[in-house]
């Protein structure tokens, strides 16, 4: 963006400096016509050159250019926001996938625990075990819940 503005200013300065320059036309002894920005000999003819943009036209061109640059800047910002939103969506999707995999693995582990004939217990952070006394009805209900979790979370 800065490069474009710089190029526009450079072009304007070059154009403005050459707009007032005189162009000389002369013909050599072989009849060949030449053009130059410096007079050569005494057989020179000054050529009228269009002096370029008027002050008003130049201001209008600068205004259009500034508006265009602002439009490009806003468009670039919107595009960057969209790219960031997509990246955020991918990250959230990956986090959700990991969470579902963990829930799936835990549900499968608990199915094995509740399906077995062994004793079921919870263990706290100190390693103390609390044994659970579950009836067959409660075990079957818990197994049904776990199987539903496996159907929903494990894909």
Brief sketch in words of this structure:
The chain contains three helices and five strands, in the order αβββαββα. The protein is α+β, with helices and mostly antiparallel strands and 155 residues long. Helix 2 packs antiparallel against helix 3.
Indicate the mean pLDDT. Answer: 81
Question: Can you list the strand order of the major beta sheet?
Answer: 2-1-3
Gyration radius from CA atoms, angstroms: 41 Å
Query: How large is the count of helical segments?
Result: 3
Counting DSSP E segments of at least 2 residues, the number of strands comes to 5
SSE order, one letter for each helix or strand: HEEEHEEH
Head-to-tail CA distance between termini? 48 Å
What features would you highlight for this structure?
155 residues; 3-stranded antiparallel beta sheet; rod-shaped
């Amino acid at each position: 963006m800065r490069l474009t503005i710089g190029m526009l200013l450079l072009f304007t300065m070059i154009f403005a400096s050459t707009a007032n320059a005189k162009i000389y036309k002369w013909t050599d002894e072989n009849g060949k016509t030449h053009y130059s920005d410096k007079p050569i000999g005494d057989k020179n003819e000054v050529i009228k050159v269009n002096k370029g943009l008027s002050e008003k036209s130049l201001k209008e061109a600068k205004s259009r250019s500034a508006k265009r640059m602002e439009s490009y800047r806003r468009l670039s910002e919107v595009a960057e926001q969209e790219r960031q939103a997509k990246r955020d969506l991918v990250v959230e999707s990956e986090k959700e996938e990991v969470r579902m995999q963990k829930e799936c693995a835990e549900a499968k582990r608990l199915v094995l625990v509740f399906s077995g004939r062994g004793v079921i217990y919870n263990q706290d952070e100190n390693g103390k075990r609390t044994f659970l006394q579950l009836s067959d009805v409660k075990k079957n209900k818990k197994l049904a819940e776990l199987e539903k979790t496996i159907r929903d979370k494990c894909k």
